């Protein structure tokens, strides 16, 4: 290019070379984006082929192991993340119909089926043989993991009896087991004190009250009494610290349920309030722990009762943190469950006057103001009433685990769902006790009805009825809970002639750490002594 007076050629030349540069750049971009596209397509193709190969190999292994490869699948409209079922779950959760939705799906798709849960295949089951395998015969293949772990992890940490697996779980369970031997459970003084407080709080003028709320207060009072030796006394005169403990406990339980729902996402959300609540909960227990240490050798302490869990645990010289982990676990495991299970019995009794009459007859036969453990256990009908309540509304209505290796479940495959299936490593599984314990093919056509007499008619059940689960991790507080329920019912129907339902809407349940009545258990009583 030569110079001109106005420099025009120079400009043209510059413009031309700019254009060329731009063309080069555009070509470069196009080139690299096509390479990227080819690379991505190749990656997808490789992934797809690998997944097809894996599927093929998996199916071959399954067949070689005698497993069926045909397992029902939820008919997703959005089959990548499974957002359709997720939204359906969320809506049901908000409408307090999640448990009902689980049951409806089992009726539609079979007692074991696959569903996508936020991009991940998950198994659902209401099959006793599968649950027996997960909790019993192949427990090692199905540790506490996935949603079940996430739900309690923020509050209990990884070393509590309720969250740990393997040796850590063995150690934690061994630490608390001696505290649940029969002699302790049969000490009814503690229950008596708190049921007396509950009875005093029941309105005598026939007005409506929430039985579930009273029972939640009572079980918190009795479990803190049993564990710490001092009760929160929420039914009578809760101290400001006890009131704060109750608030923190409720808050932590609510937040835990959220973490179960949101999964790992929850751990990225700000959790300052939860951290503060958990810190206060632990400090509350620590206060009693240190007091127990100080009082260990001192006589005549001001404790509410003679047998105290904490005193027994101190003998083991475990660290403060470890002890607090276990105490918090037991309160979380035992408080709401026992309250809701008892509320469920009241819920059904409030709708079954003939059953109440039989219960009162049996109480009259015993005729004691304060029955013994043996007398309570000998009350056949009352025990059946409790059993039937726990069948229709087990407070741990649904639960889950995840496979830590490729493993076999005995049911779910083939046209009748009765053949074994091979489950890939990492698969989470959720079971629904409430759906299983209401199955008509197990409990008969009237499975949805409250009929305690069914337990006297030769009904033979094993893993079909497991409100406390089964296997090595069976609820350690089962006898504690049953005794408290029997004692509560005995004292209640020694005091009141009848109980009436004051709410007749559908059976709505709130799903949190455990299940509960979404709108409480609204009843009134007839204030007449026997
Ligand atoms: C009606 C009342 C109760 C019901 C329905 C119930 C139910 C259950 C269930 C289903 C489990 C197994 C959870 C799992 O493996 O994921 C469990 C575990 C447990 N429960 Fe209960 N429970 C009740 C009351 C209690 C009480 C009163 C206590 C203690 C005072 C208690 C303490 C525990 C503990 C510590 C575990 C963990 C056991 C382990 O993993 O080794 N529960 N409970």
TrEMBL record:
PANTHER family reported for this sequence: P450, PUTATIVE (EUROFUNG)-RELATED (PTHR24287:SF17)
InterPro entries, A to Z: Cyt_P450, Cyt_P450_CS, Cyt_P450_E_CYP52_fungi, Cyt_P450_E_grp-IV, Cyt_P450_sf
UniProt entry keywords in alphabetical sequence: Heme, Iron, Membrane, Metal-binding, Monooxygenase, Oxidoreductase, Signal, Transmembrane, Transmembrane helix
CDD domains membership: CYP52
SUPFAM superfamilies reported in the protein's UniProt record: Cytochrome P450
GO molecular function (one): oxidoreductase activity, acting on paired donors, with incorporation or reduction of molecular oxygen
Top-level taxon: Eukaryota
Protein name: Cytochrome P450
Stored Pfam families: p450 (PF00067)
Cofactor(s) required for function per UniProt: heme
Family statement drawn from the similarity comment of this UniProt entry: Belongs to the cytochrome P450 family.
Residues annotated for heme binding in this entry: 475
Transmembrane residue ranges: 29-53
Entry annotated with the keyword Hydrolase: no
